[in-house]
Amino acid sequence: MLDRRNIIKARELAVTTLKEVIYNDSFSNEVIALNIKRIDKIDHNFYRQLVYGVLENLYYLDHIIEKLSSIKLKKIDKNIINILRIGIYELKFLNNENYASINEAVKLAKKFNFKSKNFVNAILRNFDRDVEQLSKVNIENVDERYSIQYSVNIEIIKYIKKYYPNYLEIIESFNKVPSFSIRVNTMLISKMDLRRKLELLGFTIRESKISKDSLIVENAFNMTELDEFKNGLFTIQDQASILVSEVLNPSENSKVLDLCAAPGSKSTHLLQIMNDTGMIYSNDISKNKLNKIKENFERLKLKNYKIINFDATEYIEDFEGKFDYILVDAPCSGIGVIKRKPEIKLKKSLDEINALSKIQRNILSNAYKYLKKGGIIVYSTCTIGNIENVDIINKFLNENNDMKIVKINDKDYIQLLPDTDNDGFFICKMVKN
Ligand SMILES: C[S@@+](CC[C@H](N)C(=O)[O-])C[C@H]1O[C@@H](n2cnc3c(N)ncnc32)[C@H](O)[C@@H]1O
């Protein structure tokens, strides 16, 4: 039961959530999951809409505030700037009564920093008087303009532009609502039977065009509360991510290593594909994520797994030549999942991408040593652009002559872009001759 005294309003919680995500480098989905219990269920969607709406449009909202504020943005109190961002977002993008949005913002300003109430009131009222004019982004340089308009770090814009002629569609897609897909636990139920069960509960379901164990739920709502979820009949996972384990496709009774496994979506899927035979070793560097992997194996009623914990950039002698299949689902910049984690488009830089590529290269070259002759590696990331993907593979193949590409649908690799129904993913399969 929710303690009524702890119920705070969506806007107030959005202010502090934004502070955590923008200034403390936390992930929006994690902070939201942690905080959302503090507000009434009826406010959950509004709270999410405010947090995601502000993050998705952060540079743009700041651009507008800059035009209206006599104080430099950096000098404004962090809670107050977030109240302003929420206020401008509501006035520009939502159909709420404008006077109500402004009044609520002023009330919040009083609560967080009493002196700033007039400042907040003046900025929001001035914006409300001339929304159309003040909403324009008059910047000549195209990259800079897109950076503000779509709230994407300019380095990311230039990076994407370099590889994809349709880069604008990709950038525009960052603010779209991602589709919601689930992975059927085919060890416990057939896809058809699960589909029927969910349809009887009122969900609208369609098939995925890219992965066979996926179903897409059009009107997903509180899916983790369903008995079908609690009893392990399905997992919530994007269809592109589901495709990764389908590409690796380990045989029954094989020995599999998942080097970057948390929270275990792909590990559990791999074991499911093996009909819970053989053994999967699920590793992650992060100790506090290991429990989540265990929880997932348990909920899905899978048994043949071992959870291990080491830094995959370091070589483990004991593993030399021991595995039939290895998954390197590498830590990456995550440009392919910006629709779910909008802060990525604000925070990721080219330097970080380059730094990640070194880790990715290290992990993959260790994976090579752990693979048996005839064994298979899948290298995947949830990002786009060459540095973390094709460049890694090319270098790896140059260094290891006995590794050969295994084509996937006649292609050397799959690069799914995020301007579609699914997340952006890179998947490449290789065999050791
Ligand atoms: C893309 S996520 C993996 C998602 C996972 N495969 C799944 O499907 O649920 C990358 C993971 O790599 C882990 N990681 C990052 N650096 C690592 C390293 N040096 N060694 C092992 N794991 C690492 C992170 O903690 C994170 O959980």
Automatic annotation (TrEMBL):
Superkingdom of origin: Bacteria
Chain residues that bind S-adenosyl-L-methionine: C260, A261, A262, P263, G264, S265, K266, D284, D311, D329
A Pfam family reported for this protein in Swiss-Prot or TrEMBL: RsmF-B_ferredox
Main localization of the protein described in the UniProt heading: cytoplasm
E.C. designation(s): 2.1.1.176
Gene3D superfamilies assigned: NusB-like (1.10.940.10), Vaccinia Virus protein VP39 (3.40.50.150)
Reactions catalysed: cytidine(967) in 16S rRNA + S-adenosyl-L-methionine = 5-methylcytidine(967) in 16S rRNA + S-adenosyl-L-homocysteine + H(+)
Domain SAM-dependent MTase RsmB/NOP-type: 170-433
InterPro entries in the cross-refs: MeTrfase_RsmB-F_NOP2_cat (IPR049560), MeTrfase_RsmB-F_NOP2_dom (IPR001678), NusB-like_sf (IPR035926), NusB_RsmB_TIM44 (IPR006027), RCMT (IPR023267), rRNA_ssu_MeTfrase_B (IPR004573), RsmB-like_ferredoxin (IPR054728), SAM-dependent_MTases_sf (IPR029063)
Keywords for the protein's UniProt record, in alphabetical order: Cytoplasm, Methyltransferase, RNA-binding, rRNA processing, S-adenosyl-L-methionine, Transferase
Keyword presence, Cytoplasm: yes
Gene Ontology molecular functions: methyltransferase activity
SUPFAM superfamilies hit by this protein: NusB-like (SSF48013), S-adenosyl-L-methionine-dependent methyltransferases (SSF53335)
Top-level EC class as recorded in UniProt: transferase
Cellular compartments annotated: Cytoplasm
Gene Ontology BP, a term: methylation
Keyword RNA-binding applies: yes
Catalytic residues identified in the record: C382 (nucleophile)
Similarity field: Belongs to the class I-like SAM-binding methyltransferase superfamily. RsmB/NOP family.
Function in brief: Specifically methylates the cytosine at position 967 (m5C967) of 16S rRNA.
Protein name: 16S rRNA (cytosine(967)-C(5))-methyltransferase
Protein source organism: Helcococcus bovis
Gene behind the chain: rsmB
